[in-house]
Amino acid sequence: METLTTPLIEEYCEAHTSPESELLYQLFRDTHLHTVKPRMLSGQLQGRFLSMVSRLVRPVHALEIGTYTGYSALCLAEGLAPEGMLDTIEVDEELEEMINRYVNASKYKDKIRLHIGDARQLIPSFNCQWDLVFMDAEKRSTREFYDLLLPRMRKGGLMMIDNMLWSGKVVEEGSRHDLDTQAIMEFNDYVQRDERVSNVLLPLRDGIMMVMC
Ligand SMILES: C[S@@+](CC[C@H](N)C(=O)[O-])C[C@H]1O[C@@H](n2cnc3c(N)ncnc32)[C@H](O)[C@@H]1O
Description:
Blueprint: H1 7-15, H2 22-34, H3 43-57, E1 61-65, H4 71-77, E2 85-90, H5 96-105, E3 112-116, H6 119-122, E4 130-135, H7 142-149, E5 153-162, H8 179-193, E6 198-202, E7 208-212
Parallel strand pairs: 1-2, 1-4, 2-3, 4-5
Antiparallel strand pairs: 5-7, 6-7
Helix pairs in contact: 3-4
Residues 40-42, 65-66, 68, 71-72, 89-92, 118-120, 136-138, 141 line the site of S-adenosylmethionine (SAM).
């Protein structure tokens, strides 16, 4: 993922954002050493943002689609209500061992439930109203996930959808024909027209669409 601001601004923001925990730093390093697409991980700046939003919402029911190595899951778990749980869905079973290793090393091991499988199949099996959702999986299915989840959101609940600026391609004439960019642009337009929600497209990192339901 390219940074949308300049690298200097990014560095300055990181230097003026609370540091990540030692465990998150280890996970960041481990992900870079042992996985093929480490840039998918949220990182310190976005991670602290997710943690702060979660601490504001204090979710009882939180959901993440796209766990990867568990970095954002651990950040979201920081804000759970005392009785709260985070369900996180990851389709790639090869990541299961690493996710479990870090979740078990954290103080949130009893607060995070990992589900290995395709979110499309798993979402309908949950029987609760979500207070907070972080959607960070394949981009062409974003609209499908949104439509599945919106009726299951608590009134006033919050969805955050990552990568909605797609390295700036949403405003580049030449990129509009690639399928991911097209899907993201259509999704952003869909949310913008959706009278059931209020939304802010935040230019943080790769763009987070914030949707209040
Ligand atoms: C961008 S990474 C997630 C990064 C993570 N949220 C973080 O911030 O550290 C996207 C993840 O979504 C997973 N994924 C893609 N499609 C999925 C699906 N249909 N159901 C569940 N997980 C999916 C991928 O395997 C990948 O690990």
